[in-house]
Specification:
This protein has helices spanning about 1-10, 75-85, 120-130, 150-160, 195-210, 240-250, 260-275, 285-300, 310-315, 350-360, 370-385; strands at about 230, 235-240, 320-325, 325, 340, 345-350, 395. By secondary structure, it is mainly alpha-helical. The strands form three sheets. The protein has a three-stranded mixed β-sheet. Strands 1-2 form a two-stranded antiparallel ribbon. It has a two-stranded antiparallel sheet with strand order 3-4.
Length: about 400
């Protein structure tokens, strides 16, 4: 009967396959997450409102060239400390090869012999202060313009770079570093702790959902997750599986499985697990979904945070390169394994937490889990991954 209703609604022009059917009960007024939103308990949360995020595009003009003629010569010893300081935006070694450093990146050029290139102090100072003076679309953060380093500290970094007058092959060359591959079985509970969350999800489904969805494994949910997220006309935004779980259970059973809670993640994993082996198939046949995908693409190109980085700076321009010891993967294959267990954090992340953490890394204020902006990025990313096979829960570092 449910499928007959959906077909009738579609034929009458009230919904398309790409949109959430209006006959599905959803709680439309309450937030789907804990309020007030807090990133983590006991986490020092800085406010980066001076800089753009995915909701507010704060104008960040290219700075005027700085006058450094009155500055005395910098301190190269202090400069050497600053280029490896991970607390100051990752340090130069995150993207550049430098002598005597561990896990250098190769997003930027090799700096180990910078002093041989004949660059003036003024040139190097300006480039570090705001590389947009030379390349408006650079991926290099404007270290001085966005106040990560002071003028004196940049002067010290320049002094250090000018001492590098001998090419030294890196101890750990990112150009020849082995690309990480994970051969672990993500569905093995001895390898992937989130399998126990899968068990909880199945238990919750049997308790709360089985009355209406008695044959979920055999029919509707064996493909449903592969078609999500979708546009919800009643909320005028894209909603993903996690938000759907919250709003649908609130409207039907009264259970409060808020986004990123243990129960929400468990059900999200279980519903995707039922569709494992299916190809991601985002339907963009309606105008709302097409527009959301277009906005999502634009958001992935927006420079955000104190470090002035966009999603595609890392996952398009710098894809298949290294930022410190982390390999920057392209967008293909980025979506099909979420929610995933992050061994580095000992935690299960849904795709929205991944987006939030990128905001943390770029020093931009993140948004709550059900933010429309995250939905648009999610549907754009899912659209780019059409044809990839669902394999949930994932496992990664």
């Amino acid at each position: 009967m449910k499928y007959i209703l959906i077909i009738l609604i579609t034929l009458q022009g009230f919904a398309t396959a790409a949109e959430m059917s209006c006959d599905v009960p959803l709680e439309l007024k309450e937030t789907s997450y804990t309020t007030p939103w807090q990133r983590y308990n006991r986490w020092k949360q800085n406010d980066w409102k001076k800089y753009a995020n995915l909701r507010h595009d704060v104008y960040s003009p290219i700075s005027v060239p700085q006058n450094i003629e009155i500055l005395s010569k910098g301190n190269p010893e202090n400069g050497k400390k600053l280029v490896i300081n991970r607390k100051r935006g990752g340090g130069c070694v995150a993207c550049h090869i430098l002598p005597d450093t561990a896990l250098p990146g190769n997003v930027g050029p090799n700096l180990s012999f910078m002093g041989l290139l004949g660059r003036s102090d003024e040139y190097l100072f300006k480039y570090i202060y705001d590389a947009r003076l030379f390349n408006p679309i650079t991926v290099m953060p404007p270290w001085g313009a966005n106040q990560v380093f002071s003028n004196i500290e940049i002067k010290d970094i320049v002094a250090y770079l000018q001492t590098l007058t001998q090419f030294i092959p890196p101890k750990d060359n990112p150009a020849t570093r082995q690309i990480p591959t994970d051969t672990r079985d993500n569905l093995d509970p001895f390898e992937n702790p989130s399998i126990f969350s899968l068990d909880l999800g199945e238990e919750l489904f049997e308790q709360s959902c089985q009355n209406c969805h008695q044959k979920a494994v055999e029919n509707e949910f064996t493909t449903w997750a592969a078609s999500m997220p979708k546009f919800e006309t009643r909320l005028n935004k894209i909603i993903g599986i996690e938000e759907f779980i919250t709003r649908h259970t609130l409207a039907t059973t009264g259970d409060k499985h808020l986004s990123q809670s243990e129960e929400n993640l468990a059900l999200a994993i279980y519903l995707r697990y039922l569709a494992n082996g299916q190809k991601i198939a985002i339907d963009d046949s309606d105008a709302n979904t097409k527009a959301a995908i277009k906005r999502g693409k634009t958001l992935t190109q927006r420079k955000i945070g104190q470090l002035n980085l966009a999603c595609m700076d890392c996952h398009l321009k710098s894809a298949n390169k290294w930022i410190r010891g982390q390999y920057l993967i392209p967008t293909a294959g980025m979506y099909d394994h979420f929610p995933t267990y992050r061994t580095s954090r000992g935690d299960i992340w849904d795709i929205r937490k991944r987006f939030q953490w990128c905001g943390v890394a770029t020093r931009a204020n993140e948004l709550p889990p059900d933010a429309p902006e995250y939905g648009e990025i999610e549907v754009y990313l899912a659209h780019l991954n059409n044809g990839h096979i669902l394999n949930v829960p994932g496992l990664g570092h």
